[in-house]
């Protein structure tokens, strides 16, 4: 997955119609996402420090 955010001055809808968060989010490598990148609507971004440092649960018990 890539961390993507809308390009400066752009508003991008997700496939379900909700707006893409301006701060960005992780997105799977789908045709929809690849088209938005190719069109310049979405750009790769660094994961925000607070999100990057939060450990993800292992899904144990």
TrEMBL record:
Residues 1-13 have a biased composition (Basic and acidic residues). InterPro entries: DUF2635. Residues 1-28, 42-61 are annotated as: Disordered. This is DUF2635 domain-containing protein. It comes from Rhizobium metallidurans.
